[in-house]
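Lay summary. Proteins are chains of building blocks that fold into shapes, and those shapes determine what they do. In this project we predict the shape from the chain. Here is one chain we studied, written as its sequence of building blocks.
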Amino acid sequence: MSKWEWILYAAAAYIAVMTLVRFMRQRRNALTTQLRKAFDEEHQRALEAKKKQKRRDEELKRQTVFEQMLEKSRDAA
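And here is the predicted shape, written in a compact code that computers can read:
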């Protein structure tokens, strides 16, 4: 092979590798963005579920206290 063929092959290989690297970086960034969004959404859902559970527990506690008060008032009467 001549010197010019080696130069052309080297240039083509360089361009191919750089293009591949650019595509891989774009894909990595897209996946990172997608995963971050999914993580944030799941985190938000978990927080909302935790708040709902806390409200349910508080309501159950209030209801239990109320029922105990009713029971005491019935026993006193």
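What the prediction tells us: Helices lie at 3-76.
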